[in-house]
Amino acid sequence: MARHSRFDLLFEPVRIGPVTAPNRFYAVPHASGMTNTMPRMRAGFREMKAEGGWGVVCTGYVSVHPTSDDSPLPYATLWDQNDIRAHAMMTDAVHKHGALAGIELWHGGGSVSNKTSRLPPLSPSGVSWMATHVGFMGNQRSRAMEPGDIRNLLLWQAEAARKARSAGFDIIYVYAGMGYLPYEFLLPEWNQRTDEYGGSMANRVRIVRELLEVTRDAVGDTCAVALRISLEELRARHSDRAASEAHEVVELLADVPDLWDVKMDSSPTDCSPSRFTGEGSHEPVIDFVKQITKKPVVGVGRFTSPDTMVSQIKRGVLDLIGGARPSIADPFLPRKINEGREQDIRECIGCNICISSWHDSVPVRCTQNPTAGEEWRRGWHPERFATTASPSSVLIVGGGPAGLECALTFARRGYSVSLAEGADNFGGRLRFESTLPGLATWGRVLDWRLGQLQRLPNVTLYAGNELSVTDILELEHQRVVVATGARWTRMLYSTLELPVGELEQAYVYTPDDVAAGAYIDGPIVVFDYDNYYMGSAIAEHLTQFADSVTYVTPAGHVSAWAVMTNEQPQVHRALAHAGVEVVTLSRVVKFELGELVIANLFTGEERRLLCRSLVIVGARMARDDLYQALLARRQELAPAGILSVDRIGDALAPGAIAHAVHSGHRYARELDCPPGAELYRRDSPIVEDPPRLYDDGSGERAAV
Ligand code: ADP
Ligand code: SF4
């Protein structure tokens, strides 16, 4: 199909200093969780974006020096020859498809703890980031930078820029965002210096200007120099000289960089979840930049709609459409627009499982795109599928995320697929969950898969078909895949986190009961130890039906794990807004006669809450009765022509939707592969150079 003419604008080349992006699709820097220890995986992951049509593909954050060490978070390095080789794999891979490669050079300043290098972190004035979440907390504070440290920082940036050029990069970044070192110079709370780098805005911005200048001097006219900068905080600050301090900074640096990459200041606002924010949420902060600079501007906003992209350009907000999550969820997004296949775009759902991978220090995972991170190690291409040599007929029982993904992947491989769903509609858990406050966008997991399946000739969809063992035996399919999901339990746990059995009594409910429309009378207590989104979302949901909803959790925060997905700060706000009382660090002791007794986890101090209905959001167990029943009639399988019966998704092991989708995908990819296919290729670091000593400039010598 031909591209729609109204999207032509998106495919115009854009000059960025000495280089030219072939179109306006710009895969901005974002962490992949792969670091330099997995260079082939990382190259494969980034290459896919270039193949899919992104005109520029960037790295994640790349440390210029061992004083910038974010461990245990998975950051990349560009310190030595081995690092150059590791990154060159990515630039070669990206260039193969005609895209430009960008590198985000980074110094973490007082926001890192240098847990591996053990070098004292550097900051403008000895002020350090003080994180409030375990996992991000550290107990190593920074030291104030001496004039010699500033000179070193400039040397490190210049040296890293030269290395980046020899690794083949086309766009080289100075990164003044997200609390990292150059950003720390911009804010007086961090920067209390009395020399020429502190005080007035012209002084505070000096280091950024110098970093840009040394980068340009280092790479000459061969590479573009980009500035990535966070403007949220600065935009909120008054300036005597300009409309805000953000305006002042942009005016001071207007045409110094070849490209402005503009963003927010903290991960939860920069990479905000769809539960609380829509497409294009950065615009009110960054919309002014293009009015000041003549250089191209790139920004993000979870853009998946080509019409929104065109509007951003036509309205003069952006020149290049930045994508991190949309490029993970669908690396082929640009190509699909180019080919007039917008309806095939696998739109990001804004769940932020991808960013949780970085917080977990593991390779990127994506709910929508199960092939993300698997390009090299499992050889999975998001758009290409090995056609099966033995196209047997497959029956998939259960049309949730796992069943849908499995059906689609089997169909693309040439199998004859039947997907049976007991309920009247497909979607499994999404049928209910996408109706919860803020979660409608998650429905894209269902909508995209169903839309694709409905267009394939080798798929038959049976909604409203609850299948029994007898039905399955009579249907004469060769492969049976059970994707019947999981159930929420009424299980409680002891203070030692040991299961103590289910609370089987009246007025105790689970999310399944709420989904099934059970009448739940107030006052309601939601007891959440699942710790992800369900507890808080259901509490918010239940405020429609009862005046009093209390959320109780043994964790220290509401939806404690949701800190990994950047949702937690806003979850707290949402519950406060909905009037839900929050009680943390507590467990359930007893529930009777309209009263719930809870106890503090550590002190044991008891508290009584009025409670007519208790909703337990805790452990899930596989709903695999059908699978077990099929196994119990094992002897009848072969006579019925059935070659295999397996489980996938939550019916195998309950987990987040991302896990169910991956499970369904993997099963269909690997069914007729040789034994051992489930073992993926393990990547290894490049270690051609012997270790050498590296001068960190502080008078200490650090081995790298
Ligand atoms: P997953 O996340 O693993 O895909 P879900 O719980 O979201 O799991 O979806 C499982 C789906 O399976 C549900 O829609 C449920 O109605 C369906 N299902 C369960 N048992 C049967 C059955 N015997 N026949 C057809 N569909 C079933
Ligand atoms: Fe989007 Fe979720 Fe995939 Fe991240 S994990 S890219 S937020 S769909």
Folded structure, characterized:
The protein has 3 domains: 5-346, TIM Barrel, CATH 3.20.20; 393-485 and 624-670, Rossmann fold (3-Layer(aba) Sandwich); 488-621, 3-Layer(bba) Sandwich (FAD/NAD(P)-binding domain), CATH 3.50.50.60. 29% of the residues lie in helices and 19% in strands. It has 24 helices and 32 strands. Strands 3-4-6-9-10-11-12-13 form an 8-stranded parallel β-barrel, surrounded by 5 helices. Strand 19 (491-493) and strand 20 (499-502) form a beta hairpin. Helix 16 (401-412) packs parallel to helix 18 (444-454), helix 16 (401-412) packs parallel to helix 24 and helix 21 (533-542) runs parallel beside helix 22 (568-578). It is globular, with a radius of gyration of 27 Å. Residues 695-704 have low confidence and may be disordered. Bound molecules: adenosine-5'-diphosphate and iron/sulfur cluster. Iron/sulfur cluster binds at residues 325, 328-329, 348-354, 366-368.
